[in-house]
Write a structure and sequence with these properties.
Layout lengths: L2 H33 L1 E4 L1 H18 L3 H29 L2 E4 L10 E3 L1 H9 L2
Parallel strand pairs: 1-2, 1-3
Helix pairs in contact: 2-3, 3-4
Length: 122
Amino acid sequence: MSHGMKALLPNAALALLIVAAALAAYDRMVVRPGQVIGLVDVGEIYRQKEAEFTQLLTRAGSDGERDKAFAMARSFSQRLPLALEELPRDCGCLVVLKSAVAGSTPRTLDLTAQLRRKVETP
């Protein structure tokens, strides 16, 4: 091997190492998170809150208790859209309705419990 070729080998090896590291970082930070899908069952959460509201309203004996039930419903209707907007940022994934997905894969996460906590937390 000539002297020029011997000097080129370490440089080529270093360039190959840098390219491999960049590809690995791209895969871990861009490609894989993009393949994760978060699922939420908004209907389940909505039905649960609707049942709570109905129960509070039917048990309400005074105007104050009715007002409390309506305040709970109003608060829920304001928090749900905000919580849905936060989910993709929290998980770093695409979030879709559970009813829109035919099956689950190892790359799907059920975020319904997380959404429920966000909606219940004032």
